[in-house]
Write a structure and sequence with these properties.
The complex is a heterotrimer of chains A (about 300), B (about 425) and C (about 190). Chain A is an alpha/beta fold and about 300 residues long. Chain A contains ten helices and nine strands. The radius of gyration of chain A is 19 Å and the shape is globular. Chain B has 14 helices and 19 strands. The chains are: A alpha/beta (about 300), B alpha/beta (about 425), C alpha/beta (about 190). Chains in contact: A-B, A-C. Chains A and B meet through helix 3 and helix 4 of A and helix 6 of B.
């Protein structure tokens, strides 16, 4: 039983809950390896994907997770331009609730949106990303991936590199990794960091961490999404913050590379490292993250709908 | 508390007995009787005899009698946004908060940038029974490019000038306004914000904005503009008033400017004294205000500025908004909280009860000091003065509830808070205009 | 953060099988299985978590010893197939490890106590999701009656009529340090 039925932020999830989710995810990972990748556990339950912001990966991941548990899944994708005013979010939610559904998975481009909806309804809400605030299921699947690869968390060194300021993934990951005893460093230029640095370990280039870190977590860099576009250029980014072949070769044995996806090739990670169908480098765990995503989301659905 | 009531409800003779009087002048409260007749304070003395039958007698034993509060920064939304508040509903809210004199801001629709509109507000205000003084815009339409007819507006009755809601980004224009304003001897009430820092910002740039993923407004937004305007005021000799300060930088700069003889004053809102940015964790949009509620260090500096006299007045910055404008995501919600009804309670609770400020000083910051800044004959309890008074129970606590709100709009940052200093009677122009319970 | 349902203290009412009895019963059942299936060639054994697993292992070992062969053994956890999922959610989900194909095999399904039959129904669903067995034959140590579904065991250690406010407590050396079956006062999980 998890301590709270909605998952809005990593702050809501205790270390005990995290361990429970990790345990259950192992069983679900095994189910996904079988011929028949389905169990009847959530038969008759209805889960709604309420995505106000487009996303193929996360939405599909939740869909697969729900279906493998035999739940019914409804996808509701709203163009953000058609939902300008806040009252429309609640109108949409009320319409969906009138169909007697059991769980909402919600993504919105405004921080706090999932929390706002959660405070107004009875059924549980899983935050699939709200503005720049939190993306808790991403952090959990990242943690699961790390556990599968390293067998532990305590003491592992993680460097999170890129656009911290605009990243909800970074906030969730940082909070979760620190809670589980990992040693977190941020690698970012001044424009992509908050004004007040206290409480963070900061480096300005990937080269400062590449040899010592156990995990290099690359964030998405979206040049068009920066407010006022303070970061100068792709060339500058490549020089100090990108992962290329020569840098990955400097990583220590057993170190891993992660990315929430989708990767902007040539920006965060070069084509050389990404490879064609699969990365030529064994320690790039991006696909493992996707597999973990289904298992972890199955575990969350199992625990929440079981309460 | 008993009333010996021998007359009709809107009695023109009122005798308040045994109140602890804070008159807005003396350094200590004193126990006395106060007699009101025909709108004027007839007498203040140790013992006043009730010598006729039609006097309303109020037993004020254990209660505090203050001058009617003077709130020098209120948004009445009328003309143009009457769904949010009207001059009448705003006056009712003011009376519930013990406010009998207020200055309303010109960001209405149309903007108060023409004499006829100033007259409209004054006329409608007169009928409310409280004293409403509009500030007129410094620039046409609040667009920050053309100076208004400040002379004509002053003659029409504008109490001061402000572009509140917006800052004048053009430094040269601000300088010309400052120079011109000296002729009319009315204060310039300045809203200080540098847009290159504040645009798309929602809350204070700090620890909480980072962890909550909300775009921040750096303190530099306020500080840079204040620093600019201090230089311009020094140069022009203008009388400037910085409204709703929020940063420790502001307190330091204004303190220093006063020492150097710049003709500057400033005010702070009750909510900036009551809250710091830790309140944001709830994502409650009633905490979305401009300037933003800042850090605990900033709040401590503001309280320090109150205690050492750097800050001259406390305001509400009453900013009504509709439910649809507030019950939404933080990004989409409008900025502002209402504050007329909680002005005294919030200021008293955070400064006197929680921080040990002398109530005498608090009362002055809400009455005689703002009155003096604006040049109003108000804010004191003195024989011969207009009878604007508030009877309050400083020990009585109450929880702020949405259903008790008098204002047309219900967006109060104080809902759920326990406040002290409850208003029992508000007397305006010699009439009891508000009675609690 | 597993929560355990409040249990009244268990008062032992009667001893049903001693360690020696248990041993004899398991041997007898193992022989019966061989007899009924004419040898061990097509047999595989699946033990249900949690006590069906050590029981199943013993049976698989016995069959193999008596018939001079290797009998495959697998463990099955049916948490995700239960029909009482919401009221019975547990944190301790056991492992399912079946590394052989069940298709065309005679599956010997082993559990310690047969009661309402719901666990076995869930187990049947789980096994059929894994392949198409030739047959599924059920072994239980104790059949205590009170079936709610039309399920019956093929091989029974002992039939034991019980009342609903009694419980059969099976202890095995591998899981509990001793071999015994006792009847106790009190109601617990529904099997």
């Amino acid at each position: 039983m998890l301590s709270k039925s909605s998952i809005l932020s990593i702050a809501d999830i205790s270390a005990e809950d995290v361990m429970q989710i990790m345990e259950t995810a192992i069983s679900f990972r095994d189910i996904s390896k079988r011929e028949i990748k389905k169990v009847p556990t959530l038969r008759g339950k209805t889960v709604v994907n309420l995505f106000f912001e487009p996303s193929t990966r996360t939405r599909t991941s939740f869909e697969v997770a729900a279906k493998r548990l035999s739940a019914d899944m409804i996808n509701f994708t709203a163009g953000s331009s058609s939902l300008k005013k806040g009252e429309s979010i609640m109108d949409t939610v009320r319409t969906i609730l009138a169909m007697q559904v059991d769980l909402l998975v919600m993504r919105h481009s405004h921080s706090g949106a999932a929390g706002m909806v959660d405070s107004m309804i009875e059924i549980p809400v899983i935050n699939a990303g709200d503005g720049k605030h939190q993306h808790p299921t991403q952090a959990l699947l990242d943690l699961f991936t790390i556990k599968e690869k390293f067998g532990r968390f305590e003491g592992l060194k993680v460097a999170i590199a890129g656009d911290f300021l605009n990243s909800r993934v970074a906030r969730s990951d940082m909070m979760l990794f620190e809670e589980m005893g990992m040693d977190v460093t941020l690698v970012a230029p001044t424009m992509l960091l908050p004004q007040d640095f206290s409480g963070f370990k900061i480096k300005s280039s990937i080269d400062d961490v590449i040899e010592s870190t156990d995990i290099l977590y690359m964030l998405r860099m979206q040049f068009e999404r920066q407010d006022r576009k303070f970061y100068p250029s792709v060339e500058e980014y490549n020089r100090f913050l990108s992962l290329n072949g020569s840098r990955i070769e400097k990583m220590k044995d057993g170190a891993a590379v992660m990315h929430p996806g989708p990767v902007n090739r040539g920006i965060e990670i070069t084509d050389e490292v990404m490879g064609g169908r699969k990365s030529p480098y064994k320690n790039v765990l991006i696909e493992d993250q996707v597999t973990s995503g289904v298992a972890v989301r199955m575990a969350l659905l199992y625990h929440i709908l079981g309460q | 508390m008993t009333d010996d009531y021998r007359g009709n409800i809107m009695s023109i003779k009122i005798l308040i007995k045994n109140a602890s009087i804070y008159d807005g002048i003396k350094a200590k409260p004193f126990k006395a009787d106060l007699y009101i007749k025909d709108g004027i304070i007839e007498d203040i003395d140790n013992y006043i005899k009730a010598d006729s039958k039609d006097i309303r007698i109020i037993d004020a034993e254990g209660k505090a009698l203050l001058p009617g509060l003077v709130d020098m920064h209120v948004h009445l939304r009328d003309p143009g946004f009457e769904e949010k508040e009207t001059i009448e509903s705003g006056a009712a809210a003011a009376l519930a908060g013990g406010v009998t004199t207020l200055v309303c801001m010109p960001n209405t629709r149309p903007v108060l940038d023409e004499p006829a509109l100033v007259e409209y507000v004054i006329d409608r205000g007169r009928d409310t029974g409280i004293n409403i003084y509009p500030a007129a815009a410094m620039t046409r339409g609040l667009e920050g490019s053309q100076i208004t007819s400040m002379g004509l507006l002053a003659e029409a009755g504008a109490a001061g000038f402000s572009d509140d809601g917006k800052a004048v980004a053009d430094a040269r224009l601000m300088f010309e306004i400052m120079r011109y304003s000296r002729q009319w001897q009315k204060p310039l009430i300045l809203h200080e914000e540098v847009y290159s820092f504040s645009r798309s910002g929602l809350v204070h740039e700090g620890k909480y904005s980072t962890s909550l993923g909300l775009e921040g407004i750096s303190s530099l937004s306020d500080d840079l503009m204040i620093s600019r305007d201090i230089v311009l005021a020094r140069e022009s000799g203008a009388r400037i008033h910085i409204t709703h300060i929020s940063t420790r930088g502001a307190v330091e700069m204004i303190r220093q400017a006063k020492k150097e003889g710049v003709d500057i004053s400033c005010d702070v809102t009750a909510h900036h004294l009551f809250f710091d940015d830790s309140c944001l964790e709830s994502f409650n949009t009633n905490f979305k205000v401009k300037p933003p509620i800042r850090s605990a260090e900033d709040r401590a500096a503001l309280i320090g500025g109150i205690k050492d006299g750097t800050i001259d007045a406390i305001i509400s910055d009453h900013a009504p908004h509709l439910d649809t404008e507030k019950n939404t995501t933080f990004r989409l919600a409008q900025f502002g909280t209402i504050g007329l009804e909680t002005l005294f309670g919030a200021a008293y609770t955070s400064l006197c009860r929680d921080d040990g400020l002398d109530a005498v000083q608090l009362v002055k910051l809400l009455t005689s000091s703002p009155a003096k800044l604006m040049g109003f004959d108000a804010g004191t309890l003195k024989k011969g003065k207009r009878a604007d008074a508030v009877l309050a129970d400083l020990e009585a606590g109450y929880k702020v509830k949405a259903e008790d709100i008098v204002s047309k709009s219900k967006n109060s940052a104080f809902i759920g808070q326990q406040l002290y200093g409850s208003i029992i009677y508000t007397i305006s122009n010699g009439k009891i205009m508000y009675e609690s319970g | 953060m597993a929560r355990h349902p409040r249990r009244k203290p268990m008062i032992e009412k009667a001893s049903i099988l001693s360690a020696e009895d248990l041993d004899r019963v398991i041997k007898r059942i193992s022989h019966e299985i061989l007899e009924h299936n004419r040898g061990s060639e097509s047999l595989v054994v699946i033990g249900l978590q949690k006590r069906g697993v050590p029981l199943g292992r013993r049976i698989a070992a016995n069959i193999g010893a008596f018939d001079n062969s290797e009998v495959s053994f697998g463990k099955l956890d049916i948490s995700f197939y239960r029909d009482d999922f919401a009221s019975n959610i547990k944190a301790d989900i056991g492992k399912t490890e079946i590394d052989f194909d069940v298709t065309d095999k005679n599956v010997i399904l082993v559990d310690d106590v047969l009661y309402t039959g719901r666990t076995i129904r869930a187990a049947l669903d789980a096994i059929i999701d894994l392949g198409r067995p030739k047959s599924i034959q059920l072994v239980v140590l104790i059949d205590r009656g009170h079936r709610e579904l039309p399920i019956r065991a093929d091989y029974v250690g002992k039939n034991l009529p019980t009342s609903k406010n009694e419980m059969v407590s099976v202890r095995l050396t591998e899981t509990d340090g001793q071999d015994s079956v006792v009847l106790v006062e009190g109601s617990g999980d529904v099997k």
